[in-house]
Prior knowledge:
By secondary structure, the chain is an all-alpha fold. 77% of the residues lie in helices and 0% in strands. The protein has helices at 3-18, 21-34, 38-63, 68-71, 76-92, 94-107, 115-130, 136-162, 175-184, 188-204, 211-242, 253-265, 267-299, 304-321, 326-352, 360-379, 389-392, 405-425.
Amino acid sequence: xxxxxxILITGFALFSMFFGAGNxxxxxxxxxxxxxxxxxxxxxxxxxxxxxxxxxxxxxxxxQGTMFDxxxxxxxxxxxxxxxIVYAISITLPAPRTASVTHEMAIAPFFGTSYLLTSxxxxxxxxxxxxxxxxxxxxxxxxxxxxxxxILLAVIFIGVSTTPTTISPSSFETPFxxxxxxxxQTFDAIxxxxxxxxxxxxxxFKKNTSFAIKKELITKAGIIAGIGLLTIYAGLIYSGxxxxxxxxxxxxxxxxxxxxxxxxxxxxxTTFLSVLVALACFTTGVGIVTGTADxxxxxFKNSQKAYTITAIIGCVLGVIIGQFDVHYIIVIALPAxxxxxxxxxxxxxxxVLPERFAxxxxxxxxxGVTFLFSIPDFLKFIISPESLVGIQNYxxxxxxxxxxxxxxxxxxxxxxxxxxxxxxKE
Length: 426
């Protein structure tokens, strides 16, 4: 296959595996809520929903291993626990959410069936694709993703060019931070280290492909996926802004996206959106379950049995949790995201730095401090936030759920200064 064509198909496949439930329903909601502050909110959203995830893909291109390699410089034990937590979160929250969104936006408007029936049929199809994973990249990249992009661009183009001019005021007190944290809900940073592993393993199926060629292909595919995400996000956010006055304050994320498609494309918009949602969510669900099954296959000495059992467990969990509505899944995801997202961001950033700036001691100290200072952010979604006010007063940015950022940056600088003087003396 021509290299340029292969890069494009891989980039489309990667975009499609990224672009799932959260990626569809979150940007229009942000647009409606942000109003006049939409550009600042968008910048925050782009950081955690586009920039960090694509850096994660570039890190995969550099490592060309599994997610285990992201944390092994901290310690093998840490990396094992981290991987187990990430995969547990992935198959119990974002994967089932793809089925829930599919039901609410693609099935419920046309059929009176239950969540259970939708999630059962949905994950039965996911299982079939996962068990034929060698065909995933080609099928998704060549056929499904172009169709997804065409429908999305139609909604965005008509929405941006024909929308009302009145814009409602922003409901965010801290627009940038609100966009940043809403980007957590896309799960894209976690998705980067999960589906990036799928990409690497799929590349390894091809014979006579050098490390350098795979690095170039994965990196360029990641950039293509990033451009696609940025374009779609910006368009959906801006469309939400322009239609912000047509929604009530109680409008849910799925209701906003559904109404937006109807207002831009008319009644046929509902049908287009249904197809779009089903395809976008399905490809993400396949990517998550495949990535999880790949990990456990490697953990058990390349066991195909482990791969199959993991795929079955992932799909069964998807059926069970996929019965809950989207809003409920988003709410219960918050504590998990506040716990795992800061560590994930730090691991991604450290793995793209030159090794002299990301030695094992840097990994250990920075990850340790990040974990320690993110605990209050995690706990305030478990216990009463008022009980943590005393602690948060002493941690900069803790009131924004970003108390880990400055301590992690400070310890990164100090650890590298320590390394510099240690190396110089030797």
